[in-house]
Structures are given as C-alpha cells and as structure tokens.
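Page 47, continued from p. 46.
Same chain as before, 253 aa.
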Amino acid sequence: MTPLPQVFLDRPVAHRGLHDASQGRIENARASFDAAVAAGYGIELDVQISRDGVPVVFHDYTLDRLTTLSGPVRDRSAEELAGISLSGSDDTIETLQTVLERIGPVAPVLVEIKDQSHLPGTDIAALDQVTGWGVKNAMESHGLQAAIMSFNPGYAAALSWLVAAIPRGLVGMVFDEPSLTAAENAALTDYAAFDTSGASFVSHDRATLDTPSVTRLKAQGVPIFTWTIRSAEEEATARKVADNITFEGYTPG
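Result:
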C-alpha cells in the first residue's frame, strides 16, 4: 500500500476538470483541466481505451452524449478519437499521456479507470495496465502527482507493481447492480477487497457516506473522498465525514 500524499487532501478536486459547457469548457477536456489548474484545484479525470489499446480521457463508454457521433469509444483508434470534437468546444478526445504531460506537477490528479469487465470481447486487463504505465511515466518524466482509482477492486490489485510510486484507491457506493449476485453487491458495498487490493483511500458517493463500510474505514484512518458535490450546502454536510470533495457546478469556499 502506498499512502496518499497530503497534497491530494489540501484542495478540492474538480470533477472531470473545472467544466462549464456554457463557457465552452467540456468535461474531461483541455480547457476544463487548464481552468482547474488556474483556480488551484486538484483534478479528477476518467480513462477509457481506444481500439488500438491507448488510454484516452473520456468518461462515457460511448460517444453519443458529448459528440455528434455515436458508438463505443473502444471501436475507434486513438488517432480517430483525437479528431473528434467535443460538442460546444474546440477540444477533442485526448490521450491520457497528452493530458498528464500537460498538467505535469502543477495539480494533483485522480485518474479513474472505467471498469471494462461488463463489456463483451474486452481484454479487461489492458486498460488497467497501460494506464498504470502511462501514469508512472508521467510521474517520472514530468513530475506528475497522481493516484489511480476504480470501481473495480481487481484493477487496483493488478497494479501492485506500482506500490512504491502511485497510490491506488477504490471508488464506491451502495451497490445494487442487477448483473451481480447479492453477495457480490454486498462485497462491493462493504469494500471487502480494500485490504487485498492494496488501496490506500476511497472515493465514495456522497449520498451514502453514513454507510457502515465508510465509517469503518474512516475509523482506521483511511482518507475518504466523496463525489459529486454540487453546492456549498452539500459540501458542508459531506465534510462531516469526508476528508476531501470532488465537486462540479459551483465554487468551493
């Protein structure tokens, strides 16, 4: 387990960057990351994988919501994705490497690996491992301050070779996923794999910060992030439990 550096807890974390579509700053895009850096916030971003195995910064599994195109992100090459404009912006879908090199040492970055295990015909280890190498290289070459997290505890466990360099965390909520058994949902809700995954922090849904699993981890001194905070009132409530917030849609005090 690699402890989470204090820098990740010292400033609020902008969810998918400091995005504001009305200002042409789209989530998980260059303009939003630049705005977060300028405002002195940390950054959370999401990673999907291209057809040719390159990690790209994008939240959704498909292009439909944020572009004029449709279909899975993983059906297109990194080069093709780089040519796709995000709706309402001049920004495009960038590779993780490009984004991390641009941010460099100026802001701590939480990198969320989107779980691929439910997608047919996907090598679920591929995104995990190439993301790990990309983050490690950016830390070593560009002074990046980064931590990696995922809803899938297997991803954190499979990155055990990063133990000396990059903290790993679990993203969580109260699970009621129809594709999982009751026992699997309970295990995820309870962070049953926390110790064996090598995780050193969690990022939990703000709606259920009072769940026993979060209370237990908090008592053990595990840093708790929470998502997604959208007002000063929500922040005040969340900070009774959480050590830091991931926010959007307002300016934290």
